[in-house]
Design brief:
By secondary structure, this protein is α+β, with helices and mostly antiparallel strands. The chain is built from nine helices and 36 strands.
Length: 610
């Protein structure tokens, strides 16, 4: 028992000594006047030990006390503070814009230089790397069944054969190269039209030749109308409109069975024997007695006719009246708000044939006749060029083919409206005189010859027509999704006339002047989606859609710029012919050769010219 008490006393003393040492080490010491250490007056450890040893510890200081917060004021910001804030936000926007532009430029540069970046990144050993050889693709020559060469008159044709137009072999879907049609060998032709469902040709005697699926379901051409001395023939909505030697417009059914069952005109021969013809005549009762038709153009459902007096007439086409009008007739009563005009006669386009003359003060003085020199039509639109060099358009404007801005109110223009936007391509002291127009499908073209204003005032119309201008250029507008305009771009809708710059770059050496001179356009042929141009030096250019091989280059790629097509393939050609450096592989036509662009096909035919 004594030992236990002694042990307890020893433990308590040791604890007291340890606790006192802790207090001495943890508590601050106070110096007295004699610089001697004295103990602290109170023991903090002893005061807090009960809470620290027996109770859980919780922090009693508020978290907000660790931060010094400014009091939030409801006062409005001062002008200086607002200005400072605006500057900061503007700086942020500027930096963000710079970052975006830099990112776009950097991405585009990286895309353009990606092969070089890859080469630099991979750091390949160029000594071991062997550059692969570029093998030139061998030219595949088509099999020629007709052994006649291009010196023999006939018909070269190519493109879509779904309607049995370009080949006698119905199993052939398309021809991508110009191939001779054996039926036309040694035949001279006046005119050729390649329609959507059939084709026609007029021979040197003025007789009509037809072939195609919609004609009789056969691919073999056949004579149908003889003895009418036809000059021009075009197809629209199942009807052939042909201009004969008497300047009459004949209406001929495109289909052979309908044609044979037609109760047409009654004609008497020189023996006074009457017979029924397989066609009717379009009434021209609105024309003057001495007025004659000199040209006609057709769209999908309309026809335009031009007379020798510079007047334009129109009518709807088809066996029955078309269901809808798109304003392509140029007559307000027959716009999109009305019905198409009757198809049994010609109707005068009064607003085009007449113009209002005003005084210097802008008041109406009198009405006079406007002289029209040329007409052109697309699928659902029309163009007219007058003798003053101004162009008027009317019809459907969905793709800007009228040369006017596209909007809800101008999607269809049912009356002739002057195209003003062409003037933006010339100087202020010049007049944009239009000298030629062409149209096809949903695209239009105008050839412009800028004239100085002082020459325009001093010269007569005859003198203006004789002026030659080296600054001529061509503009196009409308649907350009397949490169139909030839501007080098693919645009869905182009209402603003754009220059076809490539047409101004072709030059040839003039032996008379001993210098290079610009080569101008001689003839123009526009189909639905593609165009052929014959230059004055007999070279040919083409551009546009090529979905069916209608460009005749052996491929189906679209071409957005005027380019020279390859030469006609002769029977004597072999693969080595194209390796000869002296061989000029470009298409050139003779004076008696003409090229025509159709709906989805193209052709070259021979005329009687020499």
């Amino acid at each position: 028992m004594m030992n236990v008490n002694l042990l307890r006393t020893t433990v308590l003393r040791s604890r007291s000594i340890v606790f006192s040492s802790r207090c001495l080490t943890s508590s601050p010491l106070i110096l007295n006047k004699d610089s001697k250490l004295t103990s602290q007056k109170y023991d903090e450890a002893q005061l807090m030990s009960a809470k620290l040893n027996e109770q859980p510890y919780y922090a009693k200081r508020n978290v907000d006390e660790y931060y010094e917060r400014e009091e939030i004021s409801d006062r409005p910001a001062t002008a200086a503070e607002l200005q400072r804030h605006k500057r900061i936000e503007a700086l942020k926007g500027l930096l963000a814009g710079i970052a975006i532009v830099a990112g776009i430029i950097g991405s585009f540069t990286a895309y353009q230089k990606w092969p070089a970046i890859q080469s630099w990144w991979n750091k390949q050993d160029t000594d071991r790397f062997e550059q692969p050889k570029k093998f030139k693709k061998e030219i595949e020559l088509p099999i020629l069944t007709d052994r006649n060469d291009s010196s023999v008159p006939g018909l070269y044709i190519w493109g879509d054969n779904l309607q049995y137009i370009v080949s006698s072999d119905k199993s052939v879907k398309e021809l991508r190269n110009p191939i001779r049609h054996p039926w036309f060998d040694n035949k001279l032709l006046k005119f050729v039209t390649l329609g959507e469902y059939s084709a026609l040709a007029i021979d040197i005697n003025g007789d009509l030749i037809q072939w195609g699926k919609h004609f009789n379901g056969d691919s073999t051409p056949k004579y149908t109308i003889k003895g009418e001395n036809l000059k021009i023939a075009r197809i629209s909505n199942g009807i052939i409109f042909a201009l004969n030697g008497n300047n009459e417009i004949l209406k001929i059914a495109e289909n052979e069975s309908i044609q044979n069952n037609t109760e047409g005109l009654k004609r008497r021969n020189w023996l006074l024997v009457s017979s029924n013809k397989k066609f009717n005549k379009l009434s021209t009762e609105e024309l003057d007695k001495d007025e004659k038709i000199v040209d006609l153009q057709t769209g999908k459902y309309h026809l335009l006719a031009l007379t020798n007096k510079g007047k334009v007439y129109t009518t709807s086409t088809g066996l029955s009246l078309p269901k809808k009008s798109f304003g392509q007739y140029g007559i307000p009563e027959n716009s999109q708000f009305g019905q198409p005009p009757s198809q049994d006669k010609l109707h005068e386009v009064t607003l085009l044939n007449q113009e209002v003359s005003k005084t210097f003060k802008g008041k109406i003085d009198h009405v006079e006749q406007r002289i029209i020199n040329k007409i052109a039509t697309g699928d659902y639109h029309s163009l007219a060029l007058d003798n003053n060099g101004e162009v008027f358009s009317f019809g459907k404007n969905t793709y800007g083919q009228l040369g006017h801005p596209v909007s809800y109110n101008s999607e269809i223009i049912g009356y002739p409206k002057k195209i003003e936007l062409i003037a933006k391509h010339i100087k202020r002291d010049q007049f944009a005189k239009i000298i030629d127009i062409n149209a096809g499908g949903e695209t239009s073209f105008c050839t412009v010859s800028p004239i100085e204003m002082h020459k325009l005032i001093k010269s007569t119309n005859k003198q203006l027509n004789e002026i030659t201008n080296e600054d001529e250029f061509t503009v196009g507008f409308g649907n350009n999704l397949k490169g139909q305009i030839g501007s080098g771009h693919y645009v869905h809708a182009q209402f603003d006339p754009v220059k076809v710059k490539e047409l101004t770059k072709f030059e040839d050496f003039n032996e008379t002047t001993n210098q290079m001179e610009r080569v101008k356009i001689a003839k123009w042929s526009t189909g639905k989606d593609h165009t052929f141009i014959k230059l004055e030096n007999k070279d040919v250019l083409y551009f546009g859609g090529n979905d069916f091989g209608q460009l005749g280059n052996g491929k189906k790629n679209r071409i957005a710029r005027p380019t020279s097509p390859p030469a006609l393939i002769e029977p004597s050609f072999v693969k080595e012919t194209y390796d000869d450096l002296t061989f000029a592989n470009r298409l050139q036509l003779n004076d008696n050769q003409e090229i025509v662009a159709g709906e989805t096909a193209s052709a070259i035919f021979y005329t009687s010219k020499r």
